[in-house]
């Protein structure tokens, strides 16, 4: 499966939802997650994310993010259409420790 990681937080560009063939993105206030059981591993969303926040879960060190995607995909609502990203998205792109500071 693919998963959404830290740098999505407060960037939330939403280009990913437009390309997913199975609509498996779920929306929190500050970020999106992927439902790991619904993702068919097609990989098309990964290069679409301007924040490079989407990664295959086979990459090392992403256990925490797999847990977060799994947990919140079952409580947050599904999102299938891109909206405008936050106006200050660029200011947060690449900031360290966004999970600790802003996750919601
Ligand atoms: Fe959707 Fe494919 Fe991305 Fe999985 S890898 S979230 S199926 S676009
Ligand atoms: Fe987040 Fe990237 Fe999608 S910033 S909302 S994973 S396009």
Description:
The protein is built from 4 helices and 4 strands. With 104 residues, it is an alpha+beta fold. Strand 2 (25-27) and strand 3 (32-34) form a beta hairpin. The chain is globular and about 30 Å long. The relative contact order is 0.31. Residues 4, 8, 11-16, 31-32, 49, 51, 53-54 line the site of FE3-S4 cluster.
Identify the notable features of this structure and list them briefly.
104 residues; alpha+beta; Alpha-Beta Plaits; globular; binds iron/sulfur cluster; binds FE3-S4 cluster
Layout of secondary structure:
Layout: E1 2-4, H1 15-19, E2 25-27, E3 32-34, E4 54-56, H2 63-73, H3 89-92, H4 98-102
Antiparallel strand pairs: 1-4, 2-3
Bound molecules: iron/sulfur cluster (SF4) and FE3-S4 cluster.
Whole-angstrom Rg:
12 Å
Which consecutive residue ranges, at least 5 long each, have pLDDT under 50? Answer: none
Structural class: alpha+beta
Number of domains: 1
Reading off the top of the CATH hierarchy, the class is best stated as Alpha Beta
Pfam families: DUF3470 (PF11953), Fer4 (PF00037)
Organism: Devosia geojensis
Region (Disordered): 78-104
Keywords: 3Fe-4S, 4Fe-4S, Electron transport, Iron, Iron-sulfur, Metal-binding, Repeat, Transport
């Amino acid at each position: 499966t693919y998963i959404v990681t830290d740098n999505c937080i407060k960037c939330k560009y939403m280009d990913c939802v437009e390309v997913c063939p199975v609509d498996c993105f779920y929306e929190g206030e500050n970020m999106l997650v992927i439902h790991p059981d619904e993702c068919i591993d097609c990989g098309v969303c990964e290069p679409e994310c301007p924040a490079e926040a989407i990664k295959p879960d086979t990459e090392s060190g992403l256990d925490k993010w797999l847990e977060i995607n799994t947990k919140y995909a079952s409580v947050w609502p599904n999102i299938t259409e891109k909206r405008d990203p936050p106006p200050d998205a660029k200011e947060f792109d690449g900031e360290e420790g966004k999970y600790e500071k802003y996750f919601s």
